[in-house]
Description:
The structure holds 2 protein chains of 2 kinds. In chain A, helix 1 (2-11) runs antiparallel to helix 2 (31-45). The mean pLDDT of chain A is 89. Chain A has helices spanning 2-11, 31-45, 56-59, 62-75. The longest helix of chain A has 15 residues, at 31-45. In chain A, 57% of the residues lie in helices and 0% in strands. Chain A is mainly α. Chain A has one domain (2-75): Orthogonal Bundle (Non-ribosomal Peptide Synthetase Peptidyl Carrier Protein, Chain A), CATH 1.10.1200. Chain B is mostly helical. Chain B folds into 3 domains: 19-207, no CATH class; 210-286 and 440-529, no CATH class; 299-426, no CATH class. Helix content of chain B is 73%, strand content 0%. Chain B is built from 21 helices and no strands. Chain B has helices at 6-21, 27-40, 44-77, 84-132, 149-165, 174-182, 184-187, 195-203, 210-243, 251-281, 299-305, 308-323, 326-339, 341-364, 368-397, 404-421, 423-426, 430-442, 461-481, 486-491, 495-512. In chain B, helix 3 packs across helix 6 (174-182). The model of chain B has no long low-confidence stretch (mean pLDDT 90). At the A-B interface, helix 2 of A face helix 12, helix 13 and helix 14 of B.
Amino acid sequence: MEELLRILEELHPEIDFNTHEHLIDDKILDSFDIVTLIAEINDEFDVSIPAHEIVPENFNSAKALYSLIERLKDED
Amino acid sequence: MLFTSYSFILFLCVLISLYYLIPKRLQWKLLLLGSFVFYFFSGWSNLLYILATIVSTYFIGLKIDELNRKQADYLKENKEKLTKEEKKLYKEKIKAKQWSWLLACLFFNLGILAVVKYTNFAIANINSVLSIFRMTELSFVNIILPMGISFYTFKTMGYIIDVYRGKYEPERNIGKLALFVSFFPQLVQGPISRYDDLAQTLYQEHSFEPKTFSFGFQRVLWGYFKKLVIADRIVAAVLTITRNPEKYDGIYVLVGMVFYAIQLYADFTGGIDITIGVSQMLGIEVKENFIRPYFSKSIEEYWRRWHITMGTWFRDYIFYPLSVCKPMLNLSRFSRNHFGDKIGKRIPVYTATLVVWFTTGIWHGSSWNFIVWGLLNGIIILISQELQPLYEKFHQKVKIGDTFGFRLFRIGRTFLLMSSLRILDCYRDVGISFKMFFSMFAKPDLKPLIDGSLLKLGLDMADYIVLIAGVILLVSFSLIQRKGSVREMLSAKPAVLRYSIYIVLFFTVLVFGAYGIGFDSNQFIYNQF
């Protein structure tokens, strides 16, 4: 989780990703951020997030995103 | 059959009456029949194209699902026998088969779209190369673009990709799938609905709800007002200016640019108002396609508020899959290792953005004008993304704040920027478009604005008065809309006031509508895409 928070903070240092739960709905993460994020996650966690998983529920909070990474790791 | 034709009004009256009279379980079947009748009147041969799309997508959807079931059964039967690795291999094998079916569906349907829409464009480009070598040029082919093909093909391809992704199960009733693809209010110019948004409401049984029906009717009336009173009136001046570039340059280009922005907005959102309103009269909910786009403060925001269903389609089915696919991620890693983090991170985003905007451009029309228009949109979005840190620094130093004046400046800037790009929609080729754009700066003579020249563009004083009143009404409506639904607000007003407004609007459309012969006014701009 720390690693994920580090990646997110690099993108938007002004946001507290521990508490924010509406990253997509509040338009903090845009499509460019999401693509950068997925590339970083791919490198750091060795997990590829397929396009159909790019939905607000998976990207609205760091916690949701971490759950997605864990789920995809298990599926692998 | 245009939305703005007597035959459409007659068709709608008959269809809606029958819709609420027949048993409710037959309603969706009547809509299917109505949609095919509507499409038939646009040319019977068009029916063959849409049928080919429906049938191919239906069977391939079922095939993909059959493979899912086969996989589930096999894994269940052999749960104990198979190792994790074997299960993974089996799943990959099934996925590969599903991928082949998906590709077949995409190639077939996008192939039809490509052939009917781009053959002559390709021939024109080949001919320009052949002419350099003084070789015999190819003759153009006579293909009529089936109405709405870009819209229904994208709608259907979204459906099959979602089925492949396992987002939902395929529709097992071919009639119901046919209705989703051919639902008549959306055939002409979208919105490009998603199956999971539309299917439920489309196949449901609907009782007559006076309030919903009346709201739908009001929306249709508002759509006709935009289309007939504003768009079809102002088009005369737009055409005069843009078809005679040698005569109308300089300040006229700015006038044409602003007029075209008004025309396009009134035309396209008016058409969508009719679509959503007609659907609502049938009890069917269709997602919004616009959120007051001309109030956007940046080009990115504009594209989130203009033709939303097209933008999200490109985002979900092209931008994301392309930018997060394995080859792209590998390319990104390679570039990061060789050219540093900054460049490497940008490769997927830049590539996918340019591909999306190239596709958006060519989707709008088979000409270089649209391709250049699309790419310029993409390039400006990328530049503004790159300039973001600079803006932030500037705002830290110069405390402008989120004042009304600054917001207005940003809205005006975005409007002018988008209108400038749309010059490419209007002129016959890219060269002329750029020449006209630069003529605004080269010939900054404002005299035509005040010496009566504007009255020689095909609009007289009465037309200008109607247009100014119409635009004031549009802007006021949008401003009120920010606080909530205008129709809800109206419904809370006393009946006398409410009905007076409806009657005035109705007669405004009747009296001030710019009708052509036999009430067959201009085609909607987006019909041609």
